[in-house]
Write a structure and sequence with these properties.
seven-stranded antiparallel beta sheet, Alpha-Beta Plaits, binds iron/sulfur cluster, 4 domains, binds FE2/S2 (inorganic) cluster, 12 helices, alpha+beta
């Protein structure tokens, strides 16, 4: 019985060089973000039912990707049950379909499991062929950016940054490999840590004083008094979330998103406790979405999935979502983002038993 392969999951590994090829081939699946220096999977394409009819385009995009960072998973279905869009191209091969092409790793694994299967996929256009005739200097630059960006991403995710990668991180944004540049942009978008804010305020203040002295003006004492207020304005790491009664109506498995934008956390109700779960993906820092029907958080960047309690179970994220200190103060639920509880792997969640990591309900 003839079968075809349908794509049920697609994601992008670190190392994208923002070449636009995938968005051109499958615009409803891939979105190139030039400002962020990366490419993401559109939220709709995180659903298997959405990707199945687009299997041909996704496989073609993966084959066209010059740095092989588009990954996907497939299932085999009888040809008569496959979407028409997939079987149509299989039934009408073109001249170029006869050409061999290198499948991506997951496609390779799938075809190894079923070697006699007819491929339903459209042929790859051959950007990699074109790359062979590319200026060697440009090709070397792309290769270096890819390897360094991908390695940097993986090492950052593992929390182990050796000196060579630190060197990359010191480069100005326009000189960074795209993946590292993306991570830097995300890093900058996070609220500053209190000590960073203090240091930065101090440097800004010194700069103003130097300018004031340089241009003269009123007496130095008066100027200093004007430029150096006695009180430092620090962002308050504590977020007051309202009375406990506001959350006691939540059922086990519920997620409250009221503080996603203002506090960068979700309030999550587990069987016996309330927790404040960080909204930052532990892979490269994108913001996952809560998908209530699937009972999971899904990251749009590279497809990581987290259970309702924040435990990672699919995609490249190396560990669960972080949790913030949470407690009751004056009858109110208060989340303190200055203290985090980090589980270092899906099976390392004992840290969440710390009394400050949740409120018993
Ligand atoms: S994922 Fe690949 S094809 Fe898409 S923009 Fe990045 S490098 Fe280009
Ligand atoms: S940032 Fe890569 S999966 Fe979330």
């Amino acid at each position: 019985m003839a079968t075809v392969q349908l794509v049920t999951k697609v994601w992008i590994a670190p190392g994208c060089i923002v070449c636009d090829a995938c968005e051109t081939t499958a615009p409803s699946v891939f979105e190139v973000k030039h400002d962020d220096g990366t490419c993401i999977i559109r939220p709709a394409a995180l659903d298997a039912e959405f990707t199945k009819p687009l299997s041909n385009d996704i496989v073609q995009a993966a084959e066209e990707c010059p740095v092989d960072v588009i990954k996907f998973e497939t299932i085999d279905v009888p040809a008569e049950q496959a979407p028409a869009a997939v079987t149509a191209s299989a039934a009408a091969p073109t001249e170029t379909q006869a050409e061999p092409h290198a499948p991506s790793p997951s496609a390779e694994a799938a075809s190894a499991a079923a070697p006699a299967k007819a491929s339903p996929h459209k042929p790859a256009t051959k950007p990699k062929e074109a790359a062979k005739s590319m200026d060697p200097a440009v090709a070397a630059l792309i290769a270096a950016a890819t390897v360094r960006g991908g390695a940097a991403g993986i090492l950052r995710a593992a929390g182990d940054v050796p000196p060579a990668v630190k060197g990359i991180q010191k480069l100005s944004p326009d000189k960074l490999p795209p993946d590292a540049r993306y991570a830097k942009v995300l890093e900058k978008s996070k609220p500053p840590k209190p000590e960073e804010k203090t240091r930065r305020d101090w440097m800004v203040r010194v700069g103003w004083i130097a300018m004031g002295v340089g241009v003269g003006g009123p007496s130095l004492l008066g100027f200093q008094r004007f430029m150096m207020p006695n009180v430092l304005e620090e962002p308050d790491p504590k977020v007051r979330c309202g009375p406990l009664a506001k959350f006691t109506g939540m059922q086990p498995g519920d997620v409250n998103e009221d503080f996603k934008n203002t506090g960068r956390f979700w309030i999550v109700r587990e069987e016996d406790r309330l927790s404040a779960v960080s909204i930052v993906c532990t892979h490269l820092g994108c913001i996952p979405s809560w998908l209530p029907n699937d009972r999971k958080f899904k990251c749009p960047c590279h497809g990581s999935g987290f259970k309702q309690n924040g435990v990672n179970f699919e995609g490249p994220a190396p560990r669960p979502l972080e949790r913030f200190k949470i407690g009751i103060e004056g009858g109110e639920v208060v989340v303190d983002r200055s203290k985090k509880f980090l589980a270092m792997g899906p099976n390392d969640t004992a840290v969440w038993n710390d009394p400050e990591a949740s409120i018993p309900v």
